[in-house]
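So, can you check these C-alpha coordinates?
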Amino acid sequence: MVLAVACASLPEQVEREPAVAFAEPESTWLGRYFADGMAEHPGENGFALLASGRQALLTRLAVIEVAEKSIDAQYFIWHGDDSGRLVMDALLRAAARGVRVRLLIDDAHAQGQDLAWKTIDAEPNIEVRIFNPFANRGSALSRGPEMIGRLGRLQHRMHNKLLAVDGQVGIVGGRNIGDEYFGVDAGFNFHDLDVLASGPVVGDLLEGFDAYWNSEWAYPISVLRSEKKDPERSAELRVRFARDVAALDDFPYPTAFRGDEVRAQLDGLQDRFIWASARAVFDVPTKVSGDESSELVEALRDLVLGADEEVLISSPYFSPSEASLETPDTALQRGVVHRLLTNSAASNNIVPAHSVYKKYRKRVLASGVRIHELQAEPALRRDYLAPRAAGSRVGLHAKVVVVDRRDVFIGSYNFNKAGALLSTETALIVSSPVLAEEIAAIIEDAMRPENSWQVVLDTPGKPGKPKSGSLAWIGVRDGREVRLTGEPDTGFFRTLSIGFYSLLPLKERI
Protein backbone atom coordinates (compact mmCIF):
# COMPACT_ATOMS: atom_id res chain seq x y z
CA MET A 1 0.00 0.00 0.00
CA VAL A 2 2.84 2.39 0.85
CA LEU A 3 4.50 1.75 -2.52
CA ALA A 4 1.25 2.21 -4.41
CA VAL A 5 0.69 5.60 -2.81
CA ALA A 6 4.29 6.75 -3.04
CA CYS A 7 4.84 5.82 -6.69
CA ALA A 8 1.73 7.40 -8.12
CA SER A 9 1.37 11.15 -8.44
CA LEU A 10 -0.66 13.64 -10.42
CA PRO A 11 0.99 15.91 -13.01
CA GLU A 12 2.31 19.06 -11.37
CA GLN A 13 2.35 21.38 -14.39
CA VAL A 14 -1.03 21.18 -16.12
CA GLU A 15 -2.09 23.44 -18.96
CA ARG A 16 -5.80 24.16 -18.86
CA GLU A 17 -7.26 26.20 -21.67
CA PRO A 18 -9.62 28.64 -19.89
CA ALA A 19 -13.19 28.63 -21.15
CA VAL A 20 -16.46 30.31 -20.23
CA ALA A 21 -20.06 29.41 -20.91
CA PHE A 22 -21.86 30.57 -24.02
CA ALA A 23 -23.60 33.82 -23.09
CA GLU A 24 -25.89 34.67 -26.02
CA PRO A 25 -28.76 32.21 -25.72
CA GLU A 26 -31.13 34.54 -27.57
CA SER A 27 -29.15 33.91 -30.78
CA THR A 28 -29.91 30.14 -30.75
CA TRP A 29 -32.95 28.13 -31.75
CA LEU A 30 -33.62 27.29 -28.10
CA GLY A 31 -33.40 30.97 -27.18
CA ARG A 32 -35.91 31.91 -29.87
CA TYR A 33 -38.16 28.99 -28.95
CA PHE A 34 -38.54 30.19 -25.35
CA ALA A 35 -38.40 33.93 -26.17
CA ASP A 36 -42.16 34.58 -26.11
CA GLY A 37 -42.62 33.00 -22.71
CA MET A 38 -39.69 34.92 -21.27
CA ALA A 39 -41.04 38.18 -22.69
CA GLU A 40 -44.37 37.53 -20.98
CA HIS A 41 -42.61 36.83 -17.65
CA PRO A 42 -39.72 39.33 -17.43
CA GLY A 43 -37.11 38.48 -14.84
CA GLU A 44 -38.63 35.06 -14.16
CA ASN A 45 -37.68 31.55 -15.21
CA GLY A 46 -39.69 28.69 -16.64
CA PHE A 47 -39.60 25.36 -14.79
CA ALA A 48 -40.81 21.89 -15.73
CA LEU A 49 -40.55 19.07 -13.20
CA LEU A 50 -39.06 15.84 -14.57
CA ALA A 51 -40.64 13.19 -12.38
CA SER A 52 -40.46 9.99 -14.42
CA GLY A 53 -37.31 8.35 -15.74
CA ARG A 54 -38.72 8.36 -19.27
CA GLN A 55 -39.42 12.09 -19.12
CA ALA A 56 -35.99 12.83 -17.64
CA LEU A 57 -34.09 10.89 -20.31
CA LEU A 58 -36.12 12.07 -23.31
CA THR A 59 -35.86 15.69 -22.18
CA ARG A 60 -32.08 15.42 -22.04
CA LEU A 61 -32.00 13.86 -25.50
CA ALA A 62 -34.35 16.53 -26.87
CA VAL A 63 -32.38 19.57 -25.68
CA ILE A 64 -29.09 18.00 -26.82
CA GLU A 65 -30.60 17.30 -30.24
CA VAL A 66 -31.43 20.99 -30.85
CA ALA A 67 -28.17 22.38 -29.39
CA GLU A 68 -26.38 24.82 -31.69
CA LYS A 69 -23.54 26.39 -29.69
CA SER A 70 -22.72 24.70 -26.39
CA ILE A 71 -23.42 21.78 -24.10
CA ASP A 72 -21.99 21.72 -20.58
CA ALA A 73 -22.38 18.57 -18.47
CA GLN A 74 -21.22 18.08 -14.87
CA TYR A 75 -21.88 14.70 -13.20
CA PHE A 76 -20.80 12.58 -10.26
CA ILE A 77 -21.53 9.30 -12.11
CA TRP A 78 -21.77 8.49 -15.82
CA HIS A 79 -22.35 4.79 -16.52
CA GLY A 80 -21.48 3.12 -19.80
CA ASP A 81 -24.83 1.28 -19.94
CA ASP A 82 -27.72 1.74 -22.39
CA SER A 83 -28.79 5.15 -21.08
CA GLY A 84 -25.22 6.38 -20.75
CA ARG A 85 -24.47 5.38 -24.34
CA LEU A 86 -27.64 7.02 -25.66
CA VAL A 87 -26.82 10.36 -24.04
CA MET A 88 -23.20 10.11 -25.15
CA ASP A 89 -24.28 9.30 -28.71
CA ALA A 90 -26.43 12.45 -28.72
CA LEU A 91 -23.43 14.48 -27.49
CA LEU A 92 -21.13 13.03 -30.14
CA ARG A 93 -23.63 13.90 -32.88
CA ALA A 94 -23.95 17.42 -31.47
CA ALA A 95 -20.18 17.83 -31.51
CA ALA A 96 -20.04 16.55 -35.08
CA ARG A 97 -22.32 19.39 -36.17
CA GLY A 98 -20.09 21.97 -34.48
CA VAL A 99 -21.45 22.26 -30.94
CA ARG A 100 -18.82 22.78 -28.22
CA VAL A 101 -19.20 20.04 -25.60
CA ARG A 102 -17.58 20.23 -22.16
CA LEU A 103 -17.81 17.13 -19.93
CA LEU A 104 -16.74 17.40 -16.29
CA ILE A 105 -16.83 14.07 -14.44
CA ASP A 106 -15.93 13.25 -10.85
CA ASP A 107 -13.35 10.49 -10.52
CA ALA A 108 -14.97 8.52 -7.67
CA HIS A 109 -16.76 6.09 -10.01
CA ALA A 110 -14.64 6.51 -13.15
CA GLN A 111 -12.01 3.86 -12.52
CA GLY A 112 -11.07 1.82 -15.58
CA GLN A 113 -12.79 4.24 -17.98
CA ASP A 114 -9.83 6.37 -19.04
CA LEU A 115 -9.53 4.88 -22.53
CA ALA A 116 -13.22 5.52 -23.19
CA TRP A 117 -13.01 9.10 -21.92
CA LYS A 118 -9.79 9.76 -23.86
CA THR A 119 -11.41 8.43 -27.03
CA ILE A 120 -14.38 10.75 -26.52
CA ASP A 121 -12.04 13.63 -25.68
CA ALA A 122 -10.22 13.11 -28.99
CA GLU A 123 -13.38 13.79 -30.99
CA PRO A 124 -13.61 17.31 -32.50
CA ASN A 125 -15.34 19.93 -30.30
CA ILE A 126 -15.37 17.72 -27.17
CA GLU A 127 -13.21 18.14 -24.08
CA VAL A 128 -13.32 15.89 -21.00
CA ARG A 129 -11.98 16.90 -17.61
CA ILE A 130 -11.81 14.72 -14.49
CA PHE A 131 -12.41 16.34 -11.10
CA ASN A 132 -10.11 15.60 -8.17
CA PRO A 133 -8.60 12.50 -9.81
CA PHE A 134 -6.79 9.58 -8.28
CA ALA A 135 -3.17 9.26 -9.32
CA ASN A 136 -3.67 5.50 -9.72
CA ARG A 137 -5.71 5.13 -12.91
CA GLY A 138 -6.42 1.40 -12.69
CA SER A 139 -9.00 -0.69 -10.85
CA ALA A 140 -10.57 -0.15 -7.46
CA LEU A 141 -7.92 -2.47 -5.99
CA SER A 142 -5.16 -0.07 -6.98
CA ARG A 143 -7.15 2.91 -5.76
CA GLY A 144 -7.89 1.52 -2.31
CA PRO A 145 -4.41 2.08 -0.87
CA GLU A 146 -4.30 5.57 -2.37
CA MET A 147 -7.65 6.40 -0.79
CA ILE A 148 -6.29 5.33 2.59
CA GLY A 149 -3.04 7.22 2.17
CA ARG A 150 -4.59 10.40 0.78
CA LEU A 151 -7.96 10.40 2.49
CA GLY A 152 -7.74 14.10 3.29
CA ARG A 153 -7.96 14.98 -0.40
CA LEU A 154 -9.76 12.06 -2.02
CA GLN A 155 -12.71 11.90 0.36
CA HIS A 156 -13.82 15.26 -1.10
CA ARG A 157 -15.92 14.64 -4.23
CA MET A 158 -17.76 16.69 -6.86
CA HIS A 159 -21.34 15.53 -6.34
CA ASN A 160 -22.90 18.25 -8.58
CA LYS A 161 -25.33 17.32 -11.36
CA LEU A 162 -25.99 19.75 -14.23
CA LEU A 163 -26.73 19.62 -17.94
CA ALA A 164 -26.90 23.02 -19.68
CA VAL A 165 -27.54 23.67 -23.38
CA ASP A 166 -26.89 26.88 -25.34
CA GLY A 167 -27.01 28.91 -22.11
CA GLN A 168 -30.81 28.70 -22.34
CA VAL A 169 -31.87 25.55 -20.49
CA GLY A 170 -30.40 23.68 -17.54
CA ILE A 171 -31.37 20.43 -15.83
CA VAL A 172 -30.67 20.20 -12.10
CA GLY A 173 -31.62 17.55 -9.55
CA GLY A 174 -30.69 14.15 -8.21
CA ARG A 175 -30.10 12.13 -11.36
CA ASN A 176 -26.73 10.97 -12.59
CA ILE A 177 -26.44 9.35 -16.03
CA GLY A 178 -27.25 5.63 -15.99
CA ASP A 179 -30.08 3.13 -16.42
CA GLU A 180 -31.12 3.09 -12.76
CA TYR A 181 -31.78 6.85 -12.84
CA PHE A 182 -34.16 6.56 -15.79
CA GLY A 183 -36.26 3.57 -14.75
CA VAL A 184 -34.87 0.99 -17.19
CA ASP A 185 -32.59 -1.22 -15.06
CA ALA A 186 -33.92 -4.75 -14.63
CA GLY A 187 -32.72 -5.14 -11.04
CA PHE A 188 -32.76 -1.79 -9.22
CA ASN A 189 -34.00 1.73 -9.99
CA PHE A 190 -34.25 5.07 -8.23
CA HIS A 191 -37.33 7.14 -7.46
CA ASP A 192 -35.80 10.50 -8.39
CA LEU A 193 -36.59 14.09 -9.33
CA ASP A 194 -34.98 16.85 -11.32
CA VAL A 195 -36.18 20.02 -12.97
CA LEU A 196 -35.59 21.74 -16.29
CA ALA A 197 -35.05 25.49 -15.99
CA SER A 198 -35.11 28.07 -18.77
CA GLY A 199 -34.21 31.70 -18.20
CA PRO A 200 -31.69 33.94 -16.43
CA VAL A 201 -30.99 31.40 -13.65
CA VAL A 202 -29.30 29.16 -16.23
CA GLY A 203 -26.56 31.77 -16.58
CA ASP A 204 -26.04 31.64 -12.82
CA LEU A 205 -25.76 27.85 -12.94
CA LEU A 206 -23.16 28.16 -15.68
CA GLU A 207 -21.10 30.59 -13.62
CA GLY A 208 -20.78 27.71 -11.18
CA PHE A 209 -19.87 25.29 -13.95
CA ASP A 210 -17.15 27.61 -15.23
CA ALA A 211 -15.67 27.90 -11.74
CA TYR A 212 -15.31 24.11 -11.60
CA TRP A 213 -14.14 23.75 -15.21
CA ASN A 214 -11.33 26.29 -14.81
CA SER A 215 -10.29 25.22 -11.31
CA GLU A 216 -7.02 23.51 -10.45
CA TRP A 217 -9.04 20.46 -9.37
CA ALA A 218 -10.28 19.75 -12.93
CA TYR A 219 -7.68 17.78 -14.92
CA PRO A 220 -7.92 17.35 -18.68
CA ILE A 221 -8.22 13.61 -19.25
CA SER A 222 -5.36 13.86 -21.75
CA VAL A 223 -2.81 14.71 -19.04
CA LEU A 224 -3.61 11.87 -16.67
CA ARG A 225 -1.04 9.09 -16.65
CA SER A 226 -3.08 6.07 -17.61
CA GLU A 227 -2.58 3.52 -20.34
CA LYS A 228 -1.20 5.03 -23.53
CA LYS A 229 -3.68 5.79 -26.22
CA ASP A 230 -3.69 3.16 -28.94
CA PRO A 231 -5.20 4.47 -32.21
CA GLU A 232 -6.35 1.00 -33.21
CA ARG A 233 -8.03 0.32 -29.85
CA SER A 234 -9.62 3.77 -29.94
CA ALA A 235 -11.02 3.08 -33.40
CA GLU A 236 -12.36 -0.27 -32.20
CA LEU A 237 -13.98 1.45 -29.23
CA ARG A 238 -15.72 3.98 -31.47
CA VAL A 239 -16.99 1.21 -33.77
CA ARG A 240 -18.23 -0.84 -30.83
CA PHE A 241 -19.94 2.17 -29.33
CA ALA A 242 -21.76 2.95 -32.58
CA ARG A 243 -22.74 -0.70 -32.94
CA ASP A 244 -24.09 -0.88 -29.38
CA VAL A 245 -26.21 2.24 -29.83
CA ALA A 246 -27.59 0.98 -33.16
CA ALA A 247 -28.49 -2.33 -31.51
CA LEU A 248 -30.71 -0.80 -28.82
CA ASP A 249 -33.88 -2.01 -30.52
CA ASP A 250 -35.36 -3.29 -27.27
CA PHE A 251 -34.81 -0.03 -25.37
CA PRO A 252 -38.22 0.92 -23.92
CA TYR A 253 -38.05 4.59 -24.93
CA PRO A 254 -37.62 6.06 -28.44
CA THR A 255 -33.95 5.97 -29.48
CA ALA A 256 -34.32 7.55 -32.93
CA PHE A 257 -35.27 10.86 -31.35
CA ARG A 258 -35.36 13.49 -34.09
CA GLY A 259 -37.38 16.26 -35.76
CA ASP A 260 -41.06 16.27 -34.88
CA GLU A 261 -40.52 14.04 -31.82
CA VAL A 262 -38.05 16.54 -30.38
CA ARG A 263 -40.41 19.45 -31.01
CA ALA A 264 -43.30 17.54 -29.41
CA GLN A 265 -41.18 16.84 -26.32
CA LEU A 266 -40.26 20.53 -25.96
CA ASP A 267 -43.82 21.66 -26.64
CA GLY A 268 -45.01 19.38 -23.85
CA LEU A 269 -42.52 20.92 -21.46
CA GLN A 270 -43.30 24.52 -22.35
CA ASP A 271 -47.06 23.91 -22.12
CA ARG A 272 -46.67 23.07 -18.44
CA PHE A 273 -44.00 25.64 -17.61
CA ILE A 274 -44.25 27.18 -14.17
CA TRP A 275 -42.87 30.73 -14.21
CA ALA A 276 -41.19 31.91 -11.04
CA SER A 277 -38.25 33.70 -9.51
CA ALA A 278 -35.31 31.49 -8.52
CA ARG A 279 -31.67 31.51 -7.59
CA ALA A 280 -28.87 29.05 -8.11
CA VAL A 281 -26.79 27.99 -5.11
CA PHE A 282 -23.62 25.95 -5.38
CA ASP A 283 -20.49 25.20 -3.43
CA VAL A 284 -17.22 26.66 -4.64
CA PRO A 285 -14.84 24.03 -6.04
CA THR A 286 -12.18 24.86 -3.44
CA LYS A 287 -14.46 23.27 -0.84
CA VAL A 288 -12.56 20.07 -1.67
CA SER A 289 -9.52 21.57 0.07
CA GLY A 290 -11.46 21.18 3.32
CA ASP A 291 -11.36 24.79 4.44
CA GLU A 292 -14.49 26.22 2.86
CA SER A 293 -17.96 26.52 4.35
CA SER A 294 -21.00 25.63 2.25
CA GLU A 295 -23.07 28.54 0.98
CA LEU A 296 -25.57 26.00 -0.28
CA VAL A 297 -26.09 24.44 3.15
CA GLU A 298 -26.42 27.88 4.73
CA ALA A 299 -29.06 28.85 2.16
CA LEU A 300 -31.04 25.68 2.90
CA ARG A 301 -30.78 26.21 6.65
CA ASP A 302 -32.13 29.75 6.33
CA LEU A 303 -34.99 28.49 4.19
CA VAL A 304 -35.99 25.78 6.68
CA LEU A 305 -35.65 28.03 9.73
CA GLY A 306 -38.00 30.51 8.03
CA ALA A 307 -40.84 27.98 7.82
CA ASP A 308 -44.16 28.99 9.37
CA GLU A 309 -46.26 25.84 8.87
CA GLU A 310 -44.58 22.85 7.22
CA VAL A 311 -41.27 21.40 6.01
CA LEU A 312 -41.36 18.41 3.64
CA ILE A 313 -38.02 16.67 3.05
CA SER A 314 -37.04 13.95 0.59
CA SER A 315 -33.54 12.70 1.41
CA PRO A 316 -32.17 9.29 0.39
CA TYR A 317 -29.15 9.21 2.72
CA PHE A 318 -30.26 11.39 5.61
CA SER A 319 -28.08 12.07 8.64
CA PRO A 320 -28.64 15.18 10.76
CA SER A 321 -26.18 17.50 12.42
CA GLU A 322 -26.47 18.14 16.13
CA ALA A 323 -27.78 21.65 15.40
CA SER A 324 -30.48 20.38 13.04
CA LEU A 325 -31.67 17.88 15.63
CA GLU A 326 -32.61 20.83 17.81
CA THR A 327 -34.42 22.70 15.01
CA PRO A 328 -37.70 20.70 15.05
CA ASP A 329 -38.01 21.17 18.82
CA THR A 330 -38.06 24.95 18.53
CA ALA A 331 -40.11 24.83 15.34
CA LEU A 332 -42.76 22.63 16.98
CA GLN A 333 -43.32 25.37 19.50
CA ARG A 334 -44.34 27.55 16.55
CA GLY A 335 -46.57 24.82 15.10
CA VAL A 336 -44.25 23.88 12.21
CA VAL A 337 -44.67 20.26 11.03
CA HIS A 338 -41.58 18.41 9.79
CA ARG A 339 -42.03 15.31 7.62
CA LEU A 340 -39.15 13.26 6.23
CA LEU A 341 -39.17 10.76 3.36
CA THR A 342 -36.03 8.60 3.26
CA ASN A 343 -34.91 5.09 2.42
CA SER A 344 -35.71 1.99 4.43
CA ALA A 345 -33.01 -0.57 5.15
CA ALA A 346 -34.29 -2.66 2.23
CA SER A 347 -34.47 0.19 -0.31
CA ASN A 348 -31.18 1.88 0.57
CA ASN A 349 -28.47 1.03 -1.96
CA ILE A 350 -25.71 2.27 0.39
CA VAL A 351 -25.65 0.12 3.53
CA PRO A 352 -23.13 2.32 5.45
CA ALA A 353 -25.42 5.32 4.91
CA HIS A 354 -28.33 3.46 6.50
CA SER A 355 -26.18 2.43 9.44
CA VAL A 356 -25.42 6.10 10.15
CA TYR A 357 -29.04 7.22 9.73
CA LYS A 358 -30.11 4.38 12.04
CA LYS A 359 -28.02 5.87 14.86
CA TYR A 360 -30.03 9.10 14.73
CA ARG A 361 -33.50 7.77 13.88
CA LYS A 362 -34.93 7.59 17.41
CA ARG A 363 -33.60 11.04 18.27
CA VAL A 364 -35.13 12.46 15.08
CA LEU A 365 -38.50 10.93 15.96
CA ALA A 366 -38.23 12.14 19.55
CA SER A 367 -37.63 15.68 18.25
CA GLY A 368 -41.05 15.60 16.58
CA VAL A 369 -40.16 14.77 12.96
CA ARG A 370 -42.49 12.32 11.23
CA ILE A 371 -40.50 9.70 9.30
CA HIS A 372 -41.58 7.66 6.28
CA GLU A 373 -39.18 5.07 4.81
CA LEU A 374 -39.66 4.01 1.19
CA GLN A 375 -40.44 0.34 0.69
CA ALA A 376 -38.18 -1.62 -1.66
CA GLU A 377 -41.17 -2.73 -3.76
CA PRO A 378 -43.59 0.21 -3.51
CA ALA A 379 -46.83 0.41 -5.46
CA LEU A 380 -45.62 3.64 -7.10
CA ARG A 381 -43.06 1.75 -9.21
CA ARG A 382 -45.89 0.93 -11.63
CA ASP A 383 -45.96 4.61 -12.62
CA TYR A 384 -42.20 5.27 -12.81
CA LEU A 385 -40.56 2.20 -14.32
CA ALA A 386 -40.30 0.96 -17.89
CA PRO A 387 -41.95 -2.45 -18.57
CA ARG A 388 -38.62 -4.29 -18.61
CA ALA A 389 -37.88 -2.94 -15.11
CA ALA A 390 -41.36 -3.44 -13.66
CA GLY A 391 -40.21 -6.11 -11.19
CA SER A 392 -37.12 -4.29 -9.94
CA ARG A 393 -36.47 -3.01 -6.45
CA VAL A 394 -36.68 0.75 -5.92
CA GLY A 395 -34.67 3.16 -3.82
CA LEU A 396 -35.23 6.83 -3.08
CA HIS A 397 -32.79 9.25 -4.71
CA ALA A 398 -34.75 12.55 -4.86
CA LYS A 399 -33.16 15.41 -2.91
CA VAL A 400 -35.74 18.12 -2.36
CA VAL A 401 -37.26 20.29 0.36
CA VAL A 402 -40.64 22.04 0.21
CA VAL A 403 -41.23 24.84 2.72
CA ASP A 404 -44.77 26.10 3.45
CA ARG A 405 -45.93 24.90 0.00
CA ARG A 406 -44.23 28.06 -1.24
CA ASP A 407 -40.47 27.52 -1.70
CA VAL A 408 -38.62 24.59 -3.22
CA PHE A 409 -35.00 23.52 -2.77
CA ILE A 410 -33.99 20.91 -5.37
CA GLY A 411 -30.55 19.68 -6.32
CA SER A 412 -27.78 17.19 -5.58
CA TYR A 413 -27.42 17.67 -1.80
CA ASN A 414 -28.34 14.60 0.28
CA PHE A 415 -28.96 16.49 3.57
CA ASN A 416 -26.19 14.60 5.31
CA LYS A 417 -22.77 15.31 6.71
CA ALA A 418 -20.91 14.19 3.59
CA GLY A 419 -22.81 16.78 1.55
CA ALA A 420 -22.25 19.46 4.14
CA LEU A 421 -18.58 18.77 4.85
CA LEU A 422 -17.00 16.72 2.08
CA SER A 423 -18.69 16.95 -1.30
CA THR A 424 -19.58 19.88 -3.53
CA GLU A 425 -23.21 20.39 -4.56
CA THR A 426 -25.53 22.37 -6.85
CA ALA A 427 -29.17 23.31 -6.26
CA LEU A 428 -31.96 25.66 -7.22
CA ILE A 429 -34.19 27.56 -4.79
CA VAL A 430 -37.49 28.33 -6.52
CA SER A 431 -40.22 30.53 -5.05
CA SER A 432 -43.40 29.07 -6.54
CA PRO A 433 -46.54 27.79 -4.76
CA VAL A 434 -47.44 25.92 -7.97
CA LEU A 435 -44.15 24.03 -8.22
CA ALA A 436 -44.15 23.49 -4.45
CA GLU A 437 -47.59 21.87 -4.58
CA GLU A 438 -46.55 19.69 -7.52
CA ILE A 439 -43.50 18.38 -5.68
CA ALA A 440 -45.34 18.06 -2.37
CA ALA A 441 -47.93 15.83 -4.07
CA ILE A 442 -45.13 13.53 -5.31
CA ILE A 443 -43.55 13.31 -1.86
CA GLU A 444 -46.89 12.68 -0.18
CA ASP A 445 -47.74 9.97 -2.71
CA ALA A 446 -44.46 8.24 -1.86
CA MET A 447 -45.37 8.53 1.84
CA ARG A 448 -48.64 6.62 1.40
CA PRO A 449 -48.72 3.32 3.36
CA GLU A 450 -48.58 1.16 0.21
CA ASN A 451 -45.33 2.94 -0.75
CA SER A 452 -43.59 3.69 2.54
CA TRP A 453 -43.36 2.54 6.12
CA GLN A 454 -44.27 5.12 8.73
CA VAL A 455 -41.74 4.74 11.52
CA VAL A 456 -42.99 5.45 15.03
CA LEU A 457 -41.67 5.18 18.58
CA ASP A 458 -43.42 2.02 19.72
CA THR A 459 -42.27 2.51 23.29
CA PRO A 460 -40.84 5.87 24.33
CA GLY A 461 -37.30 6.11 25.58
CA LYS A 462 -36.41 6.95 29.16
CA PRO A 463 -36.26 10.67 29.94
CA GLY A 464 -33.15 12.10 28.31
CA LYS A 465 -32.38 8.73 26.64
CA PRO A 466 -34.34 8.50 23.36
CA LYS A 467 -32.15 5.60 22.16
CA SER A 468 -33.65 3.38 24.85
CA GLY A 469 -37.08 3.27 23.15
CA SER A 470 -38.25 0.79 20.51
CA LEU A 471 -39.57 1.34 16.98
CA ALA A 472 -42.43 0.06 14.87
CA TRP A 473 -42.99 0.20 11.10
CA ILE A 474 -46.57 0.67 9.87
CA GLY A 475 -47.56 0.09 6.26
CA VAL A 476 -49.88 -1.74 3.89
CA ARG A 477 -49.21 -5.15 2.33
CA ASP A 478 -51.71 -6.84 0.00
CA GLY A 479 -54.34 -4.30 0.98
CA ARG A 480 -53.97 -4.92 4.72
CA GLU A 481 -52.28 -2.77 7.35
CA VAL A 482 -49.28 -4.39 9.00
CA ARG A 483 -47.21 -3.35 11.99
CA LEU A 484 -43.65 -4.64 12.30
CA THR A 485 -41.13 -4.28 15.11
CA GLY A 486 -37.98 -4.88 13.07
CA GLU A 487 -36.44 -3.41 9.88
CA PRO A 488 -38.77 -4.66 7.11
CA ASP A 489 -37.59 -6.89 4.24
CA THR A 490 -33.90 -6.82 5.15
CA GLY A 491 -32.88 -10.46 5.33
CA PHE A 492 -30.01 -11.94 7.32
CA PHE A 493 -27.01 -10.64 5.35
CA ARG A 494 -28.25 -7.07 5.00
CA THR A 495 -29.10 -6.97 8.71
CA LEU A 496 -25.62 -8.30 9.46
CA SER A 497 -24.02 -5.68 7.19
CA ILE A 498 -25.95 -2.81 8.77
CA GLY A 499 -24.93 -4.05 12.21
CA PHE A 500 -21.28 -4.28 11.17
CA TYR A 501 -21.16 -0.75 9.74
CA SER A 502 -22.96 0.56 12.83
CA LEU A 503 -19.89 -0.44 14.83
CA LEU A 504 -17.60 1.78 12.74
CA PRO A 505 -16.92 5.51 13.38
CA LEU A 506 -18.73 6.71 10.24
CA LYS A 507 -20.62 9.66 11.72
CA GLU A 508 -18.54 12.32 10.00
CA ARG A 509 -17.99 10.48 6.73
CA ILE A 510 -21.43 9.49 5.38
Notes: The chain has a mean pLDDT of 90.
